[in-house]
């Protein structure tokens, strides 16, 4: 007998689950507490800057299978763009050195043999750090694996910070190793940089909502679940303020909210529930120029550049918006935001000007600072052990979110995988075949 699946949370994990389930035998309803879906991966109109911006920057890879599966289901696979080669421009501000990491397309890492294509100053012996990451045990941190030298300082440490959103001295080597196995270890064909042609919502959210509407799934925004009622090991009702939604014996609840929200709703009701409880912030600064800069070289091809030796980590060129990401940003919590913005703007000029046909203005342009205080769980070994599986002790309650035990750090790929896993668990509960992976 079919039932009603209530998905609590309209971020990418919840939307992924809904997309997998819509059009099947189950009735699907998404309850999103906020005014719009998308969670930490959405776009919005910034009136101060006079344009739409993303609330954060996300650099995806061509080898992200769950991302492309999801985009294929919602008809948005062509909305991601990027260079035709696995190229990653970088600048080392401290050394005033620029280079482009140009990976080999196949699994054989021929790029390490070419001084033109590899990280300047790297030693081949440092590659042992990559092998150590892929073989890391759950208790190891990234710093345990890296070899001292240019490859670590100019690539692997920045890579770790951006992927884990956690510093290398505390970040989980096993989680970073999982990403290495799915990217660098599989060759450049899986490492083509990808990002939305327009914005996160235009790629990941709006097409999903259109798809769900076509398949008669219901998406309710401003629908905040305030409590979960349970009895005899099953969810019996969801509370939305004064309203109460009864959960029948054939219904399922997928809790796809952030970890702190899930803890507040479930910890007292669900024996043995655990979730990450330490978090790292991400700082994004969006600068609005009068017109888009004209770029040359590798930066013109990639439309982004990695920054080493500064506060900034990645600078994305999005038409006339220069958007900067600073990961693991708890370390800057006590810094004055205006001071940080000024430092970051000077770093942007140093990164962009040598590849632009005209220099950027010295005076800082209009900007928007977006700080996600709990952007991701702190990807430490201890926090990784707190991540729960999809299934819970309650027979009709499932979990989804990048903070669940996906085997990956808190990424878009992980969030979408978690939604797919929850949908597969719904099918398994019914004894129905799920959609093929």
Automatic annotation (TrEMBL):
It holds the Pfam family Amino_oxidase. Residues 12-426 form the Amine oxidase domain. GO terms for molecular function: oxidoreductase activity. Coiled coil: none annotated. PANTHER family: BLR3003 PROTEIN, PROTOPORPHYRINOGEN OXIDASE. This is Amine oxidase domain-containing protein. It comes from Komagataeibacter melaceti.
């Amino acid at each position: 007998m079919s039932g009603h699946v209530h998905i609590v949370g309209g971020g990418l994990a919840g939307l992924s689950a809904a997309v997998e389930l819509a059009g099947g035998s189950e009735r699907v309803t998404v309850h999103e507490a906020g005014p719009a879906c998308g969670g930490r991966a959405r776009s919005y109109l910034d009136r101060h800057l006079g344009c739409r911006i993303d609330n954060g920057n996300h650099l995806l890879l061509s080898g992200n299978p769950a991302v492309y599966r999801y985009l294929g289901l919602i008809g948005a696979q062509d909305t991601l763009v990027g260079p035709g080669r696995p190229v990653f421009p970088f600048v080392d501000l401290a050394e005033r050195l620029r280079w482009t990491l140009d990976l080999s397309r196949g699994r054989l890492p021929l790029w390490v043999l070419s001084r033109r294509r590899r990280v300047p100053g790297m030693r081949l012996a440092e590659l042992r750090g990559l092998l150590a990451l892929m073989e890391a045990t759950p208790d190891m941190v990234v710093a345990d694996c890296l070899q001292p030298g240019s490859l670590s300082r100019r690539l692997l440490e920045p890579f770790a910070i951006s992927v884990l959103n956690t510093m290398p001295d505390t970040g989980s080597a096993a989680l970073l190793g999982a990403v290495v196995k799915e990217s660098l270890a599989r060759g450049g064909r899986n490492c083509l940089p990808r990002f939305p042609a327009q914005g996160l919502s235009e790629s990941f959210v709006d097409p999903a909502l259109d798809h769900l509407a076509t398949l008669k799934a219901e998406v309710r925004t401003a629908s905040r679940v305030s409590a979960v009622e349970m009895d005899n090991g099953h969810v019996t009702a969801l509370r939305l303020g004064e309203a109460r939604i009864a959960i029948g014996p054939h219904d399922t609840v997928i809790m796809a909210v952030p970890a702190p929200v899930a803890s507040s709703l479930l910890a007292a009701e669900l024996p043995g529930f655990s979730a990450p409880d330490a978090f790292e912030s991400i700082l994004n600064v969006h600068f609005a120029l009068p017109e888009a800069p004209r770029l040359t070289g590798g930066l013109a091809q990639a439309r982004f550049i990695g920054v080493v030796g500064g506060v900034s980590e990645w600078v994305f060129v999005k038409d006339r918006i220069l958007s900067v990401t600073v990961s693991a940003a708890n370390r800057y919590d006590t810094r004055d935001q205006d001071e940080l913005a000024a430092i970051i703007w000077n770093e942007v000029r140093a990164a962009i000007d040598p590849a632009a046909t005209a220099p950027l203005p010295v005076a800082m342009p209009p900007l928007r600072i977006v700080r996600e205080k709990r952007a991701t769980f702190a990807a430490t070994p201890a926090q990784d052990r707190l991540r729960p599986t999809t299934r819970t002790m309650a027979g009709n309650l499932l979990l989804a979110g990048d903070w669940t035990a996906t085997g990956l750090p808190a990424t878009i790929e992980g969030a979408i995988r978690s939604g797919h896993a929850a949908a597969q668990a719904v099918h398994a509960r019914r004894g129905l075949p799920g959609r093929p992976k």
